[in-house]
Amino acid sequence: MGKSFSAVALALALSCAAFADEGASGETGWYSGAAAQLVLPQGGARMHRIGGGAARVGYYFTDSLAFEAEAAWLENVVGLSARAVWHLHGWDEFNMLFGYERFDPFLTLGARGWMHGGQVGPSAGLGAFYYLTDSWALRFDADATIGLDTDVETAFTLSVGLQYSF
Q1: I need a labelling partner for 102 at 20 to 30 A (CA). Which of 42, 72, 120, 151 fits?
Q2: Comparing C-alpha atoms, which of 28, 44, 56, 42 is closest to residue 141?
Q3: How far is CA 139 from CA 17, 19, 48, in A?
């Protein structure tokens, strides 16, 4: 299953690289962050309903599209994920709806692997940033990973963290 996760991560990285030249506005760059996480597995398995932490690093290819990798450490499991992050901040309706342009909603799509039994599967989610400054932001995420050929049917993950763009 480790090879499957590597193949999915590589395919996702290549697909994001293909979009790098489209719509680039000069607002590209690296970011990193840390988060507290709560994992809620469904379907029964050795994974517990547990909390832990995660570290993320990513790169903005355009002002709306980023690719990131995440490593999570939890009570009885370690998780690795690779995903694309699509920011919806280009829509003026969000600024008008919330009345504040520091709010930045996003969607995620990728793959996650839990290293307790080789569970690997597609992952999708949504979240939002609240920018404290131009470089620092609070980040809120909720995503679901569908387990392929494992005891855990779906694992839901909630996280709250801090991100720094440089």
Answers
A1: 72
A2: 56
A3: 24, 24, 24
Three-class secondary structure of residue 116 per DSSP: coil
For the segment 15-65, what is each residue's pLDDT rounded down to a tens digit?
A: 444 343 333 334 679 999 999 998 887 765 566 667 889 999 999 998 889
150-165 in b/e form (b: 16+ CB < 10 A) is: bebeebebbbebebeb
What share of residues in the chain are helix, strand, coil (percent, to 5)? 15, 55, 30
Q: pLDDT tens for residues 53-98?
A: 999 999 999 888 999 999 998 877 788 999 999 988 655 665 666 5
Question: pTM for the full model?
Answer: 0.76
Two structure tokens written together for 159:
């996280």
Q: Does domain 2-165 fall into CATH 3.40.630.30?
A: no
